[in-house]
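Entry 14. Ran structure prediction on the chain below.
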Amino acid sequence: MTRRWQDVARQDRLRSTRASEHIGPGDPRVTQAPAGSEDPENPPDGDDATGGRLLEYPRGGPTVLRIVLGSHLRRLREQQNISAEDAGYTIRASHSKISRMELGRVGFKERDVADLLTLYGVLDPTERAVVLSLMEQANTPGWWHQYGDVLPSWFEVYIGLEEAASLIRTYEVQFVPGLLQTEDYARAVIRLGHPEASPGEIERRVRVRMTRRECLTGTEPPTLWAIMDEAALRRPMGGREVMRGQLVHLLEVNKLANVTLQVVPFDTGGHAAAGGPFAILRFGEQSLPDVVYLEQLTSALYLDKLADVDKYLHTMNRLSVEAARPEHTARLLTALLDQL
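Output, structure tokens:
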């Protein structure tokens, strides 16, 4: 395993340690309390206490910015020992709305955020301007909103998180991961999943997938660590030429410094991820927890409880050991290509 992935493993241990120091197993907010978050009784000094560094987050898509802003509002509320019920009363809403705001699951109204800042004792105009500016960015629709006619809302959330992630770890058993698919391969996969869709709808879905993969070669690309079962590479999606094009593309992507590909060969037998495909997203902002993504036919699960994330991290780490080493990937892909 290369030094880079040893660093990832150390990050896993560090986040788990930080989380265990600040989040008790009975904490009702464990699903959104950040690993490495500050102790509410000892708020940080300087800009961290006022939100001055909120706008410094480098990968600030609207989805993750809502989470950042929500977490900041929660910390402000807890520092003042104000209940969610009292906060909700201030903005003429229920405590459940405060919970949804703090989890970043809804948009923000300027009046609500301004009233909450007043309640939480944030009165300095400069400090308020920072938070309100972040709110405006968080409410800005992402590029994927223009495809709302073909994207379910539960998948729009994933695209937003994916765009903001600094590290994406994924395991696939049936298909090549979406970020690594060619246009022709993606079209074949989408047709399989949406047999009743019109040609126009198919093409819009393909365009979404092609736009998503642009992040890998952007100015601040995430690190992608993808593990694929050999079955995904042997299943002839779209026919021989489409599969040849897909394998050639994987060989090219495998050369990128921010991408590592591994294959779980058939001769491995059973392996750690018997339950199916999943992805783990990590963010550069330390106040954000890792998120595990599990896609189903008509919905998806987003897990960020420490116990759940640690289980999937352990499984992904075992997979990376059971799979063929990354330096063998090019040879395996070339051998498959020669067989077509």
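The mean pLDDT is 84. Will compare against last week's run tomorrow.
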